[in-house]
Amino acid sequence: MENDRTSIIDRVTAVILAGGKSGRMGMDKALIRFGDRTLLERSVEKMSAIFSHVIVAGGKAERYPGLGVPVVDDRSEGKGPIAGLCAGLRAAATDRIFAVACDTPFPNENLIRHLIDADPEADWIIPITPRGFEPLFAVYSKNCLAPMEEISQSDDKRIICLFTMVKVHRVTREEVDRLDPNLESFININTPEDVDAFLNGGPGK
Predict the structure, then answer these.
(1) At 33, is the pLDDT very low, low, confident or very high (cuts 50, 70, 90)?
(2) Which residues contact 6 (CB under 8 A, 6 or more apart)?
(3) Are the beta carbons of 53 and 92 closer than 8 angstroms?
(4) How far apart are CA 101 and CA 62, in angstroms?
(5) Is residue 130 a contact partner of residue 26, using CB atoms and an 8 Å limit?
(6) Which domain holds residue 65?
(7) Is residue 202 domain-resident?
(8) What is the mean pLDDT of residues 134-148?
(9) Quick check: is 6 in a domain?
(10) Which tens digits make up the pLDDT trace of 41-81?
(11) What pTM value is reported for the model?
């Protein structure tokens, strides 16, 4: 069984989204120190412990040196996370990717594996939490690339526009709660105060 689970993970690339202007943080969130590492270094370490293939999308390689994984530019400014998702899908050698934002420092491995296993026929596997759909903690197939590139060129660049364009599998709130009851996978670090709060007794301590 473990070999089967490992082989499935080997057919998925983790794409860490490092783009974004990080207005509330006042600087590139990927480079914020979170303990003894940056948020991006922490994310690369965690994803590399789960996946054989890891890519950082949304920045230039020289901005994030020494990560030990490929860094791909999202080729665009002002198009939001969909540009990073497209860059990751283009660069991935596997048919599917697992997308995660670099500012979510507490991803739950059991939930990640559940998403990947949920529906091998789906193009987009997306979890639901009390705040709604979570497209930046989700699985995408290469079939999403062309529709997402189309969305990125449109006036409405929201990722949720993809719902009507590909086969979607929704992972319910009940499934998410069972595997990640404190919803730690969906905690975002948005401000310096968040860094202080979570370093002083938050999840992952």
Answers:
(1) confident
(2) none
(3) yes
(4) 19
(5) no
(6) 2-193
(7) no
(8) 97
(9) yes
(10) 999 999 999 999 999 998 777 888 889 999 998 766 556 78
(11) 0.89
116 with 8: CB under 8 angstroms?
Answer: yes
What's the token pair of residue 161? 């526009």
Residue 156: name the closest of 57, 79, 77 by CA.
79
Q: Evaluate whether residue 113 is within a structural domain.
A: yes
Residue 22 CA to residue 31 CA, distance in Å, equals 11
Q: Which residues contact 128 (CB under 8 A, 6 or more apart)?
A: 134, 170, 171, 172, 173, 176
CA distances from 132 to 33, 128, 162, 166, 167 (A): 29, 5, 15, 19, 19
Write phi, then psi, for 185 (nearest 5 degrees). -65, -20
Label residue 143 exposed, middle or buried (CB < 10 Å: 0-12, 13-18, 19+).
middle
Note whether 16 and 100 are within 8 A (CB). yes
Q: Which residues of 97-127 are buried (b: 16+ CB within 10 A; e: fewer)?
A: bbbbbbbbbbbbeebbbbbbebbeebbbbbb
Q: Is 37 exposed, middle or buried (0-12, 13-18, 19+ CB in 10 A)?
A: middle
Tell whether 90 is covered by a domain.
yes
CA atoms of 46 and 21, how far apart (whole Å)? 23
CATH number of domain containing 120: 3.90.550.10
The count of domains in the chain is 1
Task: Convert the pLDDT of each residue in 74-115 to its tens digit.
Answer: 766 556 789 999 999 999 999 999 999 999 999 999 999 999
